[in-house]
Amino acid sequence: ATERTLSIIKPDAVAKNAIGEIIARFEKAGLKVVAAKMMHLSEEKAGGFYAEHKERPFFKDLVGFMTSGPVVVQVLEGEGAIAKNRELMGATNPKEAAPGTIRADFAETIDANAVHGSDSPESAEREISYFFGNDEICPR
Ligand code: CMP
């Protein structure tokens, strides 16, 4: 089925000037960008986004990293978009990411891991509405 997923190009990948290369991978895989914006997240916005990780030992570092520079937040649309995006990204830890995936090619550490992608239809819905109003999404 056609799905939507939330993608974030994280501060490390923005700093590497890799926005275009990463979006090109989504487009070449048949995913369409139906919403996009660049933002510098506040601690509150980043912490709320990752609220499910609040009790994890890496939470503070994660929020620190995600607020360290601008990010590009996008909604990707396509057949099986959630799984397709996760395949393109590779494993969360870049050291375990399969060759040719975004994290294998652009990421260094588990925190600075280049991209985020929704992990289920439920989180996709929550994450998309966390960043975008309906009037900011452009069906195409
Ligand atoms: P992301 O998909 O954005 O979701 C949560 C992020 O926490 C994850 O990518 C990693 O960048 C970061 N993180 C840091 N340490 C861990 C860990 N031990 N397990 C999972 N995620 C971690």
TrEMBL record:
<feature type="binding site">
    <location>
        <position position="103"/>
    </location>
    <ligand>
        <name>ATP</name>
    </ligand>
</feature>
<comment type="function">
    <text>Major role in the synthesis of nucleoside triphosphates other than ATP. The ATP gamma phosphate is transferred to the NDP beta phosphate via a ping-pong mechanism, using a phosphorylated active-site intermediate.</text>
</comment>
<dbReference type="GO" id="GO:0005524">
    <property type="term" value="F:ATP binding"/>
</dbReference>
<dbReference type="GO" id="GO:0006183">
    <property type="term" value="P:GTP biosynthetic process"/>
</dbReference>
<dbReference type="GO" id="GO:0006241">
    <property type="term" value="P:CTP biosynthetic process"/>
</dbReference>
<protein>
    <recommendedName>
        <fullName>Nucleoside diphosphate kinase</fullName>
        <ecNumber>2.7.4.6</ecNumber>
    </recommendedName>
</protein>
<keyword id="KW-0067">ATP-binding</keyword>
<keyword id="KW-0547">Nucleotide-binding</keyword>
<dbReference type="InterPro" id="IPR034907">
    <property type="entry name" value="NDK-like_dom"/>
</dbReference>
<feature type="active site" description="Pros-phosphohistidine intermediate">
    <location>
        <position position="116"/>
    </location>
</feature>
<dbReference type="InterPro" id="IPR001564">
    <property type="entry name" value="Nucleoside_diP_kinase"/>
</dbReference>
<keyword id="KW-0597">Phosphoprotein</keyword>
<dbReference type="InterPro" id="IPR036850">
    <property type="entry name" value="NDK-like_dom_sf"/>
</dbReference>
<keyword id="KW-0460">Magnesium</keyword>
<feature type="binding site">
    <location>
        <position position="86"/>
    </location>
    <ligand>
        <name>ATP</name>
    </ligand>
</feature>
<keyword id="KW-0479">Metal-binding</keyword>
<dbReference type="Pfam" id="PF00334">
    <property type="entry name" value="NDK"/>
</dbReference>
<feature type="domain" description="Nucleoside diphosphate kinase-like">
    <location>
        <begin position="2"/>
        <end position="139"/>
    </location>
</feature>
<dbReference type="InterPro" id="IPR023005">
    <property type="entry name" value="Nucleoside_diP_kinase_AS"/>
</dbReference>
<dbReference type="GO" id="GO:0004550">
    <property type="term" value="F:nucleoside diphosphate kinase activity"/>
</dbReference>
<feature type="binding site">
    <location>
        <position position="58"/>
    </location>
    <ligand>
        <name>ATP</name>
    </ligand>
</feature>
<dbReference type="GO" id="GO:0006228">
    <property type="term" value="P:UTP biosynthetic process"/>
</dbReference>
<dbReference type="GO" id="GO:0046872">
    <property type="term" value="F:metal ion binding"/>
</dbReference>
<comment type="similarity">
    <text>Belongs to the NDK family.</text>
</comment>
<feature type="binding site">
    <location>
        <position position="92"/>
    </location>
    <ligand>
        <name>ATP</name>
    </ligand>
</feature>
<feature type="binding site">
    <location>
        <position position="10"/>
    </location>
    <ligand>
        <name>ATP</name>
    </ligand>
</feature>
<feature type="binding site">
    <location>
        <position position="113"/>
    </location>
    <ligand>
        <name>ATP</name>
    </ligand>
</feature>
<dbReference type="GO" id="GO:0005737">
    <property type="term" value="C:cytoplasm"/>
</dbReference>
<keyword id="KW-0418">Kinase</keyword>
<comment type="subunit">
    <text>Homotetramer.</text>
</comment>
<keyword id="KW-0963">Cytoplasm</keyword>
<keyword id="KW-0808">Transferase</keyword>
<keyword id="KW-0546">Nucleotide metabolism</keyword>
